Amino acid sequence: MIAQFSVLLVCGMSLMWASMPRRQVTSGFFRIQMLIVLGLSVLAILTSGRLINATNGNGSERMLMVARTSLAATAVLAYIGSILWTLDRRPAGTNCVFAILIGSLISLIVLPGVRSEFLTPSHLFLILSNLATAAVLGGAVTGMLLGHWYLTAPTMSIDPLKSLSWFFGAAVILRMIVSIVGWSLGSNQLHDSTHWTWFAMRWLAGILGPLAIAIMAVRILRYRNTQAATGVLFAGVILTFIGEMSAALLYSELHIPL
Q1: Cα–Cα distance between 67 and 71 in angstroms, integer?
Q2: Global pTM exceeds 0.85
């Protein structure tokens, strides 16, 4: 679970970097982001061995090797990117952003296949669910960290934070649609009270709460109050993590992404 969450965070954060207006953000922000991704990639490599399901045989080991290779490349790219952004080499640093996004996408696609059949309809739906989760986690975490960066660069334009707040809201809506589809496929498997408790936490903390947070952040930024928006987004990070952890618990029991 740690490896999967690390990959989801790396993929989501790099997706937000690729989407946001980077020219309006100082280079120091991306330098720190690269170091965060470096740590998450190494953590994912160290914990990914627990994903192997003995019943899948050598196929699982090959997929795990592909995922680890991709994560290792992502870690190296993040280290190089941190140096480039420190030197304010923005074009080369931007290339690292997109390379990290590609590497993390490969890991996100391959890792679920370690424990299930690869490229089956259920696997493809799980990939879509993971992409939606990555976007939500990345939108919340990157938005919150960018909001804190305004304490270091108070004269920076607030347009990037506005964009990330909108992206966060769009990601939550995508996550809601995917969760509704998953619910329609597996609602008959929600039997006991524990499942319903996790399901309630998944929706209240992981979808409805973050959606309200995204709306609040967008409205607050109309008044150019980055500190208040950052505080709201920090709450969004907490809610998102609670919701996604509840969804992970449900998936471990029901094997349906909700």
Answers
A1: 6
A2: yes
